[in-house]
Write a structure and sequence with these properties.
Layout: H1 2-6, H2 11-20, H3 22-25, H4 31-39, H5 47-60, H6 67-90, H7 95-110, H8 114-130, H9 145-171, H10 194-198, H11 223-242, H12 254-270, H13 279-301, H14 307-338, H15 349-368, H16 378-387, H17 394-408, H18 412-423, H19 426-429, H20 435-442
Helix pairs in contact: 2-5, 5-6, 5-7, 6-7, 7-8, 7-9, 8-9, 9-11, 11-12, 11-13, 12-13, 13-14, 13-15, 14-15, 14-16, 15-16, 15-17
Length: about 450
């Protein structure tokens, strides 16, 4: 708490910023209850509560661009990691400690500190297991709403760990460790509407609709619930990706593809005009379907399916892949038309991942097809430039893209198209790459 006070931050504004940005796509901290605990912090000091507030302060500095702010950001990050580790040694696991860890993962993932994020999400998972957050609690009709709010928060924290764990797994291309948390049970309760959770009625809980993963996709559920539906399907795709392609069969793609197409259609049909609503869920679903179609096309291209199936599988998957890349470009175009410094913080991490994945898929598709296919990646580039004001993650993805181009000996026309995409984010990710890669970028046109 002393560190926070020394910074002379406007704590109320920091909390407001968090609940207007990160909380929209990761609603795991009950706002009114947390603000009440903060208001009592001077009279009733509690290290875990202060640490959670400090986590919000650290995330607030992810948009740092000049060296002075970067130094402050680095200092705050390392201080937070030290405090987070220290509390684990001297205090029992607590919900606030896990929540602090989740915000740390958001910071590390957004700053492209992928290995650190992988370690932190594992710590969060172990703390969560110690708190039995993974245990489903039924018979909520027997509870009062005050008790249910706390139960819902525990469930949201567990689902938040699950979601970030799969996001880290998607980004961590250098080392594929097993997921930190187990697969969700079909009966896992999904989050209810955020407004109901934040401002529940009084009295006992009776007749409350609490969806589960068995709830039909067509049923309207909350934004966070949609994200969990999407990330679970992405997790299924990751299982396929982690297998050797030589061991994959065509039938393994059928169920995930049908489920993803249904979810994407449902999401788009239920998403209102504004890009903010369901943005994270839409992005995760698009990431999953793009990655699945890439994998399917790659298997067919390498003639790994039955001889009579390879051509049809390749043509159908590449056609669908180009369509979903186009959808991502269209979403980015709409975002770019209204993006400002005031609303850039609303971009979820999942949207950054989805945009980068679409760009990588477009380049790969261009190298596969001989019919002159060229994706218009300009909207993707502009979105990444905008979002770089908050997240540095895109640098990691484009390093992989550049290395892929060099390794694959892609022709010069495609290379120049890639360079145009990369050029817009060059200033963002030069600080994240090694000199040999920088040398390659400088000589990319030659």
């Amino acid at each position: 708490m002393t560190t926070i006070l020394e910074q002379k931050w406007d704590l109320s504004q920091i909390m407001t910023t968090h609940y207007r940005t990160i909380h929209l796509w990761l609603p795991v901290i009950h706002e009114s209850n947390f603000r009440r605990r903060i208001s009592q912090l001077q009279q009733n000091p509690r290290a875990e509560t202060a640490l959670l507030l400090f986590a919000m302060c650290v995330i607030r500095h992810t948009s740092a661009s000049d060296s002075e702010i970067d130094d402050t950001q680095s200092h705050l990050y390392h201080l937070f990691r030290y405090l987070f580790s220290s509390l684990q040694l001297v205090r029992s696991p607590s919900l606030e400690l896990v929540q602090s860890g989740l915000l740390l993962v958001v910071f590390e993932l957004g700053a492209s500190l992928i290995n650190a994020a992988s370690m932190t999400i594992s710590i969060c998972a172990r703390l969560a297991y110690a708190l039995a957050l993974n245990v489903n609690v039924f018979h909520i009709d027997e509870l009062y709403f005050a008790e249910w709010v706390e139960l819902e928060e525990r469930q949201r924290v567990w689902l938040g760990i699950y979601m970030l764990d799969r996001m880290v797994h998607q980004v961590n291309t250098d080392f594929k460790a097993p997921p930190a948390v187990e697969e969700l049970d079909n009966n896992t309760r999904l989050p209810v509407d955020d407004l109901l959770w934040e401002k529940p009625p009084g009295g006992p809980v009776r007749g409350l609709f609490q969806p589960t993963l068995l709830t039909p996709v067509e049923t309207k559920v909350s934004y966070f619930a949609r994200e969990i539906q999407a990330i679970r399907l992405l997790g299924n795709v990751q299982k396929l990706s982690d297998k050797s392609v030589a061991n994959l069969c065509l039938e393994e793609f059928d169920d995930p593809e049908r489920a993803l197409i249904l979810l994407v259609k449902t999401l788009f049909a239920q998403t209102p005009g504004t890009w903010v609503v369901f943005c994270g869920a839409n992005a995760l679903a698009l990431t999953a379907i793009v990655r699945l179609l890439q994998l399917k096309a790659e298997c067919a291209r390498r003639q790994l399916f039955p001889p009579s199936e390879n051509r049809v599988a390749f043509e159908s998957s590449t056609l669908a892949l180009s369509s979903f890349i186009g959808i991502t470009c269209e979403i980015c175009t709409r975002f770019n038309a209204v993006a400002t410094m005031d609303n850039i913080g609303l971009v979820p991490l999942g949207a950054v991942i989805s945009t980068a994945e679409a760009a990588i898929a477009a380049v790969e598709l261009s190298s596969w097809l001989t019919n002159g296919y060229r994706a218009d990646c300009e909207p993707l580039k502009i979105t990444l430039v905008y979002s770089s004001q908050c997240w540095k993650l895109s640098g990691k993805k484009f390093i992989m893209l550049l290395r892929y181009c060099v390794r694959s000996n892609i022709d010069m026309v495609i290379k120049r198209n890639i360079f145009n995409v990369l050029g817009g984010v060059r200033c963002l990710w030069l600080t994240l790459i090694h000199p040999p890669v920088d040398f390659l970028l400088k000589n990319f046109h030659s």
